[in-house]
Recover the amino acids of this structure.
């Protein structure tokens, strides 16, 4: 999916949790995380001690237009300061830390987040460094552990990917799972008169083409053909298109037959052929 579906006239959601990136190493990863936030309706970003300083031009490039998130990003010297005004915090980690904390998936965290935000609380989602993740002491500052059902043989996620998965679960819940578009309105379903006329047409032409080689099997074959089209749920436009297809096939066959007949007639009437003169 690309930016082709972006509607810049719409307002951005403002009531989601805060995303906190702890000591991100690369501007590219910050930008990728910000792009994922924008995709899934998260707008509040806090960055703890970014390694390459701030602002970061590479973050802008990789954010792919989600500049408003970067423009409003808050920078903190340490995680404690970034969490000070929050009421509930989930720390993302792929490793067991030996702590007596609830361990929740992204979907469960989304439900908990929505409930707490509805109650007026401020919620934060904390993501760690690209290379080492969060330190155990940092995880201890959170209320719950957030983890994902990843392959245990290869559990390391790119920072932007991790944010994307968690943000997706949040936005799916917050938006009620509404998709950005649905199948367009279809043409009206063909009525039985339309279908029966088509059946008459195709069966007549199949008969002409000697398709029904066995008279005994013809009734069963006709039923099978009709059932194929019944299962499709044809619209009136579909039936009209099928009529045209059959007519084109028949016309093409007749044109070929006429050309063949003309060639044969030309051969029999060529000079030097046929009966000679006395």
């Amino acid at each position: 999916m690309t930016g082709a579906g972006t509607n810049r006239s719409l307002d951005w959601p403002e009531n989601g949790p805060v995303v906190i990136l702890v000591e991100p190493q690369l501007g590219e990863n910050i930008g990728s995380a910000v792009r994922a936030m924008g995709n899934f309706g998260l707008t509040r970003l806090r960055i703890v001690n970014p390694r390459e300083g701030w602002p970061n031009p590479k973050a802008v490039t990789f954010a792919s237009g989600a500049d408003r998130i970067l423009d409003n990003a808050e920078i903190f010297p340490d995680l404690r300061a970034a969490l000070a005004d929050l009421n509930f915090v989930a720390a993302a980690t792929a490793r067991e830390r030996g702590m007596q904390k609830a361990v929740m998936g992204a979907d469960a965290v989304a439900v908990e987040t929505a409930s707490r935000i509805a109650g007026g609380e401020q919620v934060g989602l904390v993501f760690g460094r690209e290379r080492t993740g969060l330190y155990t002491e940092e995880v201890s500052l959170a209320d719950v552990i957030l983890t994902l059902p990843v392959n245990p043989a290869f559990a390391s996620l790119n920072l932007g990917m991790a944010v994307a998965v968690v943000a997706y679960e949040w936005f799916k819940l917050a938006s009620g799972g509404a998709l950005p578009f649905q199948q367009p309105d279809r043409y009206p379903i063909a009525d039985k008169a339309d279908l029966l006329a088509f059946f008459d047409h195709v069966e007549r032409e199949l008969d002409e083409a000697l398709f029904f080689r066995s008279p005994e099997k013809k009734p069963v074959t006709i039923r099978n053909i009709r059932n194929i089209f019944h299962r499709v749920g044809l619209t009136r436009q579909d039936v009209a298109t099928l009529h045209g297809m059959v007519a084109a096939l028949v016309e093409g066959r007749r044109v070929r037959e006429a050309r063949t007949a003309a060639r044969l007639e030309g051969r029999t009437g060529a000079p030097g052929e046929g009966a000679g003169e006395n």
